[in-house]
Amino acid sequence: MAQIYIETHGCQMNEADSQDIRQRALAAGFTLAERPDDASVLVLNTCTVRDNAEQRAYGRIAHWKAVKDADPSVKVVVTGCLAEQDKDRMRTIVPHVDGVFGTRELGALGDALAGWRAEYPDDDFSVDREIETVMGGEGVGIAGPYDALRGFVTVQRGCSYYCTFCIVPHVRGRFDHRPMREILDEVRAKTAGGAREITLVGQTVNAYKEPATGADFADLLEAVCALEDVERVSFISSHPKDLDEKLARVCATLPKMNPRFHLALQSGSNPMLRKMNRKYTIEQFLERIATFKAHNPSWAMTTDLIVGFPGETEEDFQKT
Questions:
Q1: Distance in angstroms (rounded) separating the CA atoms of residues 154 and 12
Q2: Against a cut of 0.70, is the pTM above it?
Q3: What string of DSSP letters covers 122-137?
Q4: Hey, what's the torsion of the CAs at 193, 199, 202, 203, to 10 degrees?
């Protein structure tokens, strides 16, 4: 039976996408390989948020050339943010790669996997192939044994906030929110496959707005927690701009919620926050945290901080 090896670099969004790729591969008749040398298809899900992530990815792609040289029938696939950014460039610098699929091309990647099964080894799926968007595409949310215990469910793709340090809107596009019905159907599929904790994933997950009804992220949490087979719910990553009192109140009423969340501050200096285009002040950040903790005193919070940002002074650093 054909085997597939999937390696994931980067954020929880990529983890969610790789989980989707695994289920598409299983549906296409693949089994999962533990080592690249055992696989007939190698998939690298890449990150491009930092330069070292790009260098790591290109190093891994180069390493896989030896696997393909040993067996030319092996297919090498690159997906994720680096694939979105460097699709044309990859054709030249890593010509041994058989397919490059951007951040919204998981449906096309699934079709390619179906064509690359052992009985169809010569099908050609070029990087220029017309694609379907993963948002609402057929096959999203297929459940299987590798969803056991924890399932990632994407609620939105892209970001429209354009922080000056972040490449995400340029490689994943602007906000694209999934209908709540689709999200709940995927949660049900994940739990049917064995998942008991559901992690809702988005670049700024608490900015979620249901396209048709305007339901917000707090409404979505209530709907997910109401599903009988869901035992625990978490979410990542949040943005301070969208941390409102309604979300704080709702989290306090939902015993299935994992009592921790990630909220990136980035800087304790208002001038730096403006340069970063973060859309809040340090005073607003602290006020929103205080409101959330008033409703949820036992919750823990983690954060991100950037130091050495262009233009940062010693005073800015000390404020952080």
A1: 10
A2: yes
A3: T----TT-----STT-
A4: -130
For 287, phi then psi, to 5°, come to: -65, -40
Give Cα 264 distance to the centre of its chain.
16
Which of 39, 44, 58 shows the shortest CA–CA distance to 116?
39
Token code pair at residue 205 = 């997950």
Rg of the chain over CA atoms, in angstroms?
21
Contact 9, 118 (CB under 8 A): no
pLDDT grade for 312, boundaries at 50, 70 and 90: very high
Length of the chain: 320
CATH number of 145-319: 3.80.30.20
The pLDDT tens digits for 211-246 are 899 999 999 999 999 999 999 999 998 999 999 999
CB atoms < 10 A from the CB of 66, how many? Answer: 11
The C-alpha atoms of residue 49 and residue 270 are separated, in whole angstroms, by 23
Closest CA to 18 of 1, 36, 32: 32
Residue 248, phi then psi, degrees to nearest 5: -60, -45
Question: What pLDDT does residue 148 have?
Answer: 65
Buried b (16+ CB within 10 A) or exposed e, 82-120: bbbbbbeebeeebeebbbbbbbbbbbbbbbbbbbbbeee
Q: Name the residue ranges covered by the structural domains of the chain.
A: 3-115, 145-319
The Cα–Cα gap between 191 and 188 comes to 5
Please tell me the distance from the alpha carbon of residue 83 to that of residue 89, in angstroms, as a whole number: 9
Question: Which tokens hold the place of 254?
Answer: 């939902």
Q: Classify domain 3-115 at the CATH topology level.
A: Rossmann fold (3.40.50)
- Cα–Cα distance, 157 to 202 (Å, whole number): 6
Q: How many CB atoms lie within 10 A of CB 247?
A: 24
Report the C-alpha gap between 168 and 144 in whole angstroms.
Answer: 29
The gap from C-alpha 276 to its chain's centroid, in whole angstroms, comes to 22
Of the ranges 145-149, 160-164, 221-225, which is most confident?
Answer: 221-225
Mean pLDDT of the chain: 88
